[in-house]
Amino acid sequence: MNDLLKTIHQRKSVRAYKRVPIPEDVKTQIIDAVLRSPTAGNLMLYSILEVADQKKKDALVMTCDNQAFIGRAPWVLLFLADYQRWYDFYQIAGVGSDVNQPLRRPEVGDLFLACCDAMIAAQTSVLAAQSLGVGSCYIGDIMENYETHQKMFALPPFVFPITLVCYGFPTNQQQKKRRSPRFAKELILHRNTYQGLTEDLAEIMNSDLKSRFAGQLLQEKYNSNMGQLMYNRKFNSDFTKEMNRSVKVILENWRGSNLGDDC
Ligand SMILES: Cc1cc2nc3c(=O)[nH]c(=O)nc-3n(C[C@H](O)[C@H](O)[C@H](O)COP(=O)(O)O)c2cc1C
Question: For residue 263, what pLDDT band results from cuts at 50, 70 and 90?
Fold first, then answer.
């Protein structure tokens, strides 16, 4: 296995960090690697916002589903899908000053492209960090509570907070932690046409999940039915409902239905 593949295979989410700061030159190497990420049309449809203020980190603990380790992370970066920079640039350049050719607003397709850019940038940072001995963990809950995050970071309408990433040197316990399991390749890899979930494949999923949660299942209401258990724990959980509410507000802002046409 080459070094890059080793980095990929050894990575695991790290949620407890040594109480030491990440040296500036390490941060610089990570950011420089991020800037080399592939990006749609070479437009760099993302921004990175460093959350250095401890008060803001502490607030994020609460707004991101009470995840205390955010407040203890030595380095926290917010990855933003960003069409605002280009929209502003087009306006400054006078695009749309001709009434026959108005400046169009970024649409949902543009947002998706910007999200691709921002997530690829985030993953580059995760792998670069791993290669330098720095652990990391994504915080998807940043998509919740948009109204609070919008104010906290002064986000304009064409900026979508797609993910937060916490970084730090892993504690000894985290270094020893086992990597988390993955579904079998046959569930994920399709060839030429989409393979729907057959009963056999569903059984593979079910027994895989059972083996992962064996210890906890007995305490759960839906003892051996992993579908019902996962549905309640993830898909129909309160944090997922909040995420969907919050993303709806972001989309309304993006589409302009909350802000009028002049933003
Ligand atoms: C988009 C995304 C959002 C995530 N959000 C969270 C989160 O809010 N809190 C958390 O502890 N881990 C979060 N994770 C980490 C996953 O739980 C983790 O990647 C998964 O359990 C697999 O474990 P591994 O990264 O150790 O292989 C997130 C990962 C991704 C890719």
Answer: very low
